[in-house]
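job 3f2a | input accepted
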Amino acid sequence: MRIRTMLPHALLLMVLTTLGCATSSPLAHMEQPAAGLPVFGSLPALSVFQEEAGVAEPYSETSWSGVGWTALMYIPNRILDILDVVRAKLRLGPGFAIGAQATSVTHVYVGTYFTVFIGLPGPRQRKMPKLPVGVETRTGAQLSKADVTLEGGLGPDYGRWEFALSFQLAIIGADLGLDPYEFWDFLAGLATYDPAGDDF
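job 3f2a | predicted structure (200 res):
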């Protein structure tokens, strides 16, 4: 008699419990994970965070790894930047030549030489440093943008804003230059700004 009285109550309790679990389960509110994202990325709280703040890239320039790399390369970059400002090469080898440049707009050169050089090679115009020794050859003539010269070895490779003067007399020569833009790049680099785009 007691079992018959309790059975309807037990059934009613089971139905209510089942309905309650179905409507309040966290799984019912979870979004399907996007392709390529881990399952935990679909939790509602994380989804809201991602929408508001965006997903941070682990190795972005603003991350701790980017800050650490900038700090690690700060001194080497500043040394390379200041070396870019000046060109001072001694050349040894046969040839007769003279040349001058006041930025790339005004450039004059005539002559020929085949030399080895030592010294500061001038603006890198790239990330990797230039070697302080090497082989350099140049033959022909140039007047501003009219350039009929052939270069070999490492070549003089003048900067766009560089002021330079060079000569080769019999077996000895020199190549001297100064680049104000590279000096600006050095000053800006003190504040970790890189207008020349040549920092590591």
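job 3f2a | Residues 87-179 form one domain.
job 3f2a | closed
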